[in-house]
Amino acid sequence: MPSRPLAAALALTLAAGAAHADEGMWMPSQLPQLRAQLMAAGFRGDPAALADLTRAPLAAVVSLGGCTASFVSEQGLIVTNHHCAMGAIQLNSTPERNLIRDGFNAAALDDEVSAGPAARVYVTVAFDRVTDRILDGARGKTGRAYFDAVDAAKKAAVAACEQDAGHRCSVADMYYGSEFYLIKQLELKDIRLVNAPPVSIGNYGDEIDNFVWPRHVGDYSFYRAYVGKDGKPAAFSKDNVPYRPPAWLTVSTAPVREGDFAMVAGYPGTTFRHRTASEFTNQIDWLLPSRVSMYDGLIRTIEQATSGNAGKVVLYASTVASYKNTLKRAQGELEGLRRSDAIRVRRADEDAMLAWLSGQADAQAMLADIRALQVQLDAAEAGRERDFVLSFLRPGLLGAAVQLQRLALERGKPDAQRESGYQQRDEAMIEGGLKQLQRRYDPEVEKAVLRFALARYFALPVAQRVPEFDSVFGKDMTEAAARLDVLYAGTKLGDEAARLAALHLDSAQLVAATDPLLRAAATLQPALLRLENEAKQRAGELLRLRPAYMQALIAYRQSQGRAVYPDANSTLRVSFGRVSTLSPRDGVDYRALTTVAGIVEKHTGVVPFDAPKPLLDAIARGDFGSTADPELKTQTVDFLTNLDTTGGNSGSPVLDAQGRLIGLNFDSNWEAVSASWMYDPRYKRAIHVDMRYLRWLLAKVYPAPRLLQEMRLPPE
């Protein structure tokens, strides 16, 4: 629990933020205190309404569990990014009916198709501070005991919250163990794909243009949420009816201009701006280079293993797209942090903070905790190579076998004592994932992926090797290749019925199972549990010690008149700023909007610049109607803002001064990829699909009049 000085510093954080209004991912509850900054930026609504999760606009903003989306009709219609819906598009694609290539439009409700048994939409309905409740039992404890006390309190809070059927609850850690919030979300389980453009629109430019401005991509798709006839969340059923949300966004038909107010609401994944100098060094000197190397190799491995086989290409399309995005993000983050000289800058800043702190009264206990924190961080680096590689040795079907063994083990405990992710509340999602695996797995491709990862494992120092992994995979690549052939030739888990049957076996039955992948998973489980215990010991100490660092950082930033807001952690946040130009380097100036002229300029007819003929024909006709920009006299495509975003904000609605939907966030510029660690207002920009482009596509290029009518938009 934070000390009184920390509590006071947290309370005063907002006052320090006034000079940096374009920076910050604010909790909704903080927004009323930012009234002056919001109004100065151009907001024309009531800032107090932004804190009300039961009212528009925030009641319309939802999480997809990794992306953001928003309701745009009273019939549960949801808009998000194409890349966020790629899994559902791929799941419903075959070589004969390739929705990735051709796009999809449901002409009627009955034509909408399931996004998959694991697809979820989460509607946040409550966000309450529970710090004392979570930390009371942890006082005086250290290490694993501290971790377990906090974990038990979080599970108890979640269990009590989920007594309200149909809701998913979680406890979020703010300011690194200093504050905790209980988040309650309605969990919608029947999600259906409604509309998606061809990939040559939804991902125009692919990895060449990823994180690059100017962009010309229509990165959007539509879902719809369904519920049972009683209005409550229910699994997919033809008898279900469209969900009626508490609020939905109005799509703007007004122009978007440079300098206009803009606001993004969403579920940004993770930022690390408040991490220590040593963690910055580890990220730049080791983790990012390792990530680049690993994902580059995985992509090449999968592409080689699927080459020439259209069916396998479809099976792994979503995985490859995700890996490519991860790779390019890591490359951009590394380049940006090096360009910003982040190691030196962060070290100098931390040294100055510690020097300032040493001059404050009663700071000795805080300084001791900060020194102890650094000892823990240094110790964690000892096994970093091992832990990194092991995370890639449980892909697809083998990962499912490991999951089945762990679930059976956890079922032998009272639910409150089960590991998070394996409680009763998680079993439906696990089952959905096991079903969905059928459309994202091929044994030869998975073996190729494992061979690639195992080559990294066998290159580890002998002291970092794990006996159980050696027992399953052998001691070198020759032995590993032979063992993989035996494992996958003999397993029955490639069959969905076999996986679902194993889902209902108890631990003794699974341990005794003869299926080779289940036996391999049983062999690996003791090692995984042992390593998990070590990780929790470290995590407990970090959770106990980080608040001292945060207390010092907040107080020091306050003395500088600088803002401190919680690092992003997949909870609902709001950022605000303006539609902005960009000058990334000397002699280069980018305007804030792109137009369809850029699509034609980039078009080569070859992937990824293979604009479809209906789009090119429509551009040539110049029939843009009411969606044409009045100043540019043509159709816009994407636009830039200086909004503070990161991964997880994909699909987030971009709102104007009246709270109307003007765009969908989908990317950051290359110069700003490193903003998850270091924010620089000179370079930080967010990239959005202009809703005018989306409207034009639905009206003139791939007509979807039903959707336009449902969103109460003009037909052209």
Please give a structural write-up.
This protein has 716 residues and is α+β, with helices and mostly antiparallel strands. The protein folds into three domains: 28-249, no CATH class; 277-547, no CATH class; 573-710, Thrombin, subunit H. 44% of the residues lie in helices and 14% in strands. It contains 26 helices and 20 strands. Strands 1, 2, 3, 4, 5, 9, 10 and 11 form an eight-stranded antiparallel sheet that branches. Strands 13-12-18-19-20-17-16 form a seven-stranded antiparallel sheet. Strands 6-8-7 form a three-stranded antiparallel sheet. Helix 6 (143-161) packs across helix 22, helix 9 crosses helix 17 (443-458) and helix 13 (364-380) runs antiparallel to helix 22. The longest helix is centred in the last third of the chain and has 45 residues, at 516-560.
Give the total of beta strands: 20
Morphology: globular
Structural class: alpha+beta
- How much of the residues is beta strand, in percent? 5-15%
Mean pLDDT: 94
| Count of DSSP-assigned helices | 26
Q: Supply Rg.
A: 25 Å
Distance between the termini: 57 Å
Low-confidence stretches: 1-7, 9-21
What is the helix content?
A: 40-55%
What is the number of independent domains? 3
**What is the makeup of the main sheet?**
8 strands, antiparallel
Brief characterization of the structure:
44% of the residues lie in helices and 14% in strands. By secondary structure, it is an alpha+beta fold. The protein has three domains: 28-249, no CATH class; 277-547, no CATH class; 573-710, Thrombin, subunit H, CATH 2.40.10.
